[in-house]
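Hey all, quick one. A colleague (J.T.) asked me to put the fe (ii) ion job into the tracker so the inputs and the structure tokens live in one place instead of scattered across chat threads. No bug as far as I know, just bookkeeping. Sequence used:
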Amino acid sequence: MNAQTPYPLAQPHDPLHEVLPNIYRVRGSVSVRAPFIKYGPLTLSFSRNMYVVKDHDDLTLINSVRLNEAGMARLSALGKIKNVIRLAGFHGMDDPFYRSQYGATVYSVDAPYTKGMSKAPKPGDIYFQPDVVLTPDSPLPIKNALYTEIRSATPKDGLLILHRDKNIMISGDSFQHWPKPDPLFNVTAKILMRLAGFFKETSIGPGWRNYAKPDIQELIHIANTEFDCLLPGHGEPVLKDASQRFLQRLQKMR
Ligand SMILES: [Fe+2]
């Protein structure tokens, strides 16, 4: 694969590993300029998760993360990269790479791919158009799966629920489980994100909550759908009693 593409380069990440049967995870990272500090070169580097759902030889990437050469070789050995699903309105920077280089079909939450964090981006700030804008009625490229979204948030945030032996929910920015910073954080992110209230078990991302302003009642309604596992866009997988744990947290946030 040609490394000289106009797409963001791979950023540090951990190896691909199977977290549940036929569902793989890569803990990747992203570096962004500290959004709440106007001056100075402060960069936050922190982790973000990609999940890969394997169906025979076909792969669907959720919350895509571009990988380094060894990582792409491992991913390609797992199967054919057929689809990308973008759940978080603030993610998606690596989706154009997967469509261009692997021919993946890109499904996205109904939120523009925009530079920066404007809620009303100018046309020139929109850098990509997905192949499919998701609604709860959309056919999905994953069997026995349901798509839903947090409509009260701006931008919306999507969720996938996979019906397997257990019900598995995969989130974008909303439902998180980030008990502590991991080795993909830089010092700035460890300090500033702790001050901002990150690093809680089974919680709603505070940065996303403050910006996207979801209705807590809608989150409670979603948590009542009873999912055993949560595979979050940020943080660590919750493999047991996930919906009950989130309901307890959300009751305190009302
Ligand atoms: Fe995020």
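Adding what we noticed when we looked at it: Residues 171 and 232 are 5 Å apart (CA to CA). The chain has a mean pLDDT of 94.
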